[in-house]
Design goal:
Layout (H helix, E strand, L loop, with lengths): L2 E5 L7 H8 L8 E4 L5 H8 L5 H16 L3 E2 L12 H10 L5 E4 L7 E3 L11 E4 L2 H7 L1 H6 L2 E5 L11 H11 L6 E7 H5 L4 H19 L6 E8 L11 E4 L3 E4 L11 E6 L2 H11 L7 E9 L1
Parallel strand pairs: 1-2, 1-4, 2-3, 4-5, 7-8, 8-9
Antiparallel strand pairs: 6-12, 7-10, 9-13, 10-11, 11-12
Helix pairs in contact: 1-3, 5-7, 7-9
């Protein structure tokens, strides 16, 4: 998950090849293609200036969509020497782990893939350690680049010691990025059945406010916690997700730290399920009853 690749802009000589390259990346694949060097898209476009207007237009459309869908992302401050070839520039960044793999015309290193034999797995799913930093790392791109984020986990309780560090790690990363709103969907009975509802809600608001302030979210941004009743409804929370308009990640054990040595299966959400989840959690097409809403605004 969250793998970052870079490709020599010279690997694609036709729009169909560029389409094939981009199809291996993006939130639905769980891996991303770097805009490296910073004018990578412009370099690709220039290669098609003399091949006809229709082909050049297809390339521009493919690149525009790749940027819009977070298939192609920009990493700032990566070094580039104009006097060196692309592979000579990119290889040191591979060794320094800025990139997880390179795609080139020719290759003689294990992590450098020749484009004509490129065969990446459909998704970059993986098992992560059940610790807070790993949850943030596996979702880093979505946390930094998504304007709105949703966590769906019926058992997520910020008052619990195994959940709070995971939330804090994700808040800290999201606060550095483009997130304007971060919403938590949880099952009310899992939160409110352990004592006085008024006391629990007050404690939740205090804890969330402290986390938001410590994360240094910018003014105008908000964190919302939605407690719902779903036990007798057609729409039920079951699987645990981090969701954005761009894509999402499924985590089989939810957003909680686990005992040492235990792992969490993490994988990208496919497009069909992603669209269904957007209907529920972004467009409100569900029959769950909202019991309480806590909103922390800055």
């Amino acid at each position: 998950m969250n793998e970052l690749y870079a490709a020599d802009p010279a690997v694609c000589s036709r729009a169909s090849e560029l389409k094939l390259l981009l199809a291996s990346f993006g939130p639905y694949a769980g891996r991303y293609l770097a805009n490296y060097p910073i004018d990578w898209s412009a370099q690709v476009e220039r290669q098609f200036d003399t091949v006809g207007q229709q082909e050049a237009a297809r390339v521009k459309t493919l690149l525009r969509r790749a940027r819009e869908t977070l298939t192609l992302i920009t990493r700032a401050n990566l070094p580039w020497n104009m006097n060196q070839a692309w592979l000579a520039n990119a290889t040191p960044l591979l060794h320094d782990r800025h990139f997880d793999g390179l795609i080139a015309v020719q290759a003689d290193l294990p992590a450098v893939h020749p484009f004509d034999t490129l065969d990446l797995p459909p998704t970059a799913e993986e098992r992560i350690s059940g610790i807070a930093s790993e949850y943030a790392h596996v979702a880093k791109i979505l946390l930094l680049l998504s304007p709105e984020l949703v966590v769906i986990d019926p058992y997520l309780n910020p008052l619990k010691r195994n959940c709070a560090p995971v939330l804090k790690a994700m808040f800290d990363l999201a606060a550095k990025g483009k997130s304007q709103k971060f919403t938590l969907w949880v099952r009310a009975s899992e939160i409110l059945s352990t004592g006085s509802a008024a006391t629990i809600l007050s404690d939740l608001e205090t804890v969330l406010h402290r986390m938001v302030c410590q994360a240094n979210f910018k003014p105008g941004r908000s964190v919302e916690m939605i407690l719902v009743e779903d036990e007798t409804r057609q729409t039920k929370m079951h699987a645990r997700y981090l969701l954005s308009i761009k894509g999402g990640i499924r985590l089989d054990q939810g957003f909680q730290q686990l005992p040492q040595g235990r792992h969490v299966d993490a994988g990208p959400i496919g497009q069909t399920i992603h669209n269904a989840l957007l209907d529920i959690y972004f467009d409100g097409k569900h029959d769950m009853r909202v019991v309480e809403r806590l909103i922390i605004s800055l």
